[in-house]
Amino acid sequence: MRHLLGADRLDADTALAILDTADGLKRTLLGREVKKLPTLRGRTVITMFYENSTRTRVSFEIAGKWMSADVVNVSAGGSSVGKGESLRDTALTLAAAGADCVIVRHPASGAAHRLAGWLSDVGTCVVNAGDGTHEHPTQALLDAATLRDRLGGIDGRRIGIVGDVLHSRVARSNVHLLTTLGAEVVVVAPPTLLPTALADWPVSGLTVSYDLDAELPTLDAVMMLRVQAERMHGGFFPSAREYAVHYGLNATRLAMLPEHAVVLHPGPMLRGMEIAHAVADSPRAAITEQVANGVHVRMAVLYHLLAGEEDQA
Question: Which Gene Ontology CC terms are recorded (predicted)?
């Protein structure tokens, strides 16, 4: 694996290898007072974030440091981007400075792919930490890891993805990855928050519904999405209250799920609108587990990208 740009590029074997590596790293670190492995000593990892982030940025930084890599954080506001430098020149500068891996989050869909094209010749790998409304592959991987922990497996499970699918890179990556791993995925949203080309997505096992209550009793997991107001220009639903009434996950709807079903949310949560306080804080929710798994999954991704083939064997 040279880069990690999208879940649509992951086959089942590669995805499962990353998830298995993440499980192994989690077991290796369990109970350790000092969470430090020498695996990536001497490697330099640079995070380049052009959008705000807490969970993704912090977990990538922790992942790199737990693997003994040198981690450098670059933000648009504190770099030469603020002086008008192009993304290409910034990327080539970081590679020339010694970056082995650049982790990028950018508001433009396709930015990570462009970056990979510029950096492939100089031997620097690229990880897509979210590009516009396109993809967020490591989020899908950590969600899959959490589902495996809670459900014991993904193959044959029915998973609902609920909310602002139109603007969600998390939804896109999860649709690709979960169906690749054998799950049936149903996306549930108002028509205004669904992509017009959803039916043309190259995946099997994907269905669409507008009725959350009708789907809940058959789901093994429900993934609530953040309503991305910062990407909305115009009215996509009448009000926050009406959205909560029709598509928010409250205690009544939680009771409609099977007893084994798990609740996920990529964060940050809009409590009271997308998800009720009682649901977010219930034992059925695995939201903090997603964050913890995110560190191990991102360690696994860095391992597969940067460790030598002999080490991986």
Answer: cytosol
Question: Cα separation of 272 and 130, whole Å?
Answer: 26
- 240-270 pLDDT, tens digit per residue, is 778 888 899 999 999 999 999 999 999 888 8
- The verdict on whether residue 55 carries a ligand-binding annotation is yes
Give the chain's residues under pLDDT 70: 77-83, 199, 229-238, 308-313
The pLDDT of residue 178: 97
Residue 308: the pLDDT is 60
Q: Determine if residue 290 is labeled as part of a ligand binding site.
A: no
Asked if CATH classification 3.40.50.1370 holds for the domain at 7-134+291-312, the reply, yes or no, is: yes
pLDDT at position 236 is 64
The pTM assigned to this predicted structure is 0.93
Answer yes or no: is 83 a known binding residue. Answer: yes
Nearest to 237 by CA among 261, 273, 277: 273
Residue corresponding to tokens 């989050």: 105
Residue 36 assigned to a binding site: no
Ligand-binding annotation for 308, yes or no, is no
Cα 49 to Cα 105: distance, rounded to the nearest angstrom: 5
Residue 200 tokens read as 């043309």
Which residue stretches of the chain are H helix? 12-29, 55-66, 87-96, 111-119, 137-151, 169-180, 212-215, 240-247, 251-256, 277-280, 287-306, 309-312
Question: Which pLDDT belongs to residue 310?
Answer: 45
CB 110 within 8 A of CB 135: no
Establish whether 268 is an annotated binding residue: yes
Q: Say if CB 136 and CB 160 are below 8 A apart.
A: no
d(CA 173, CA 136): 6
State yes or no: 27 annotated in a binding site: no
**Is CATH 2.40.340.10 the right assignment for the domain spanning 137-287?**
no
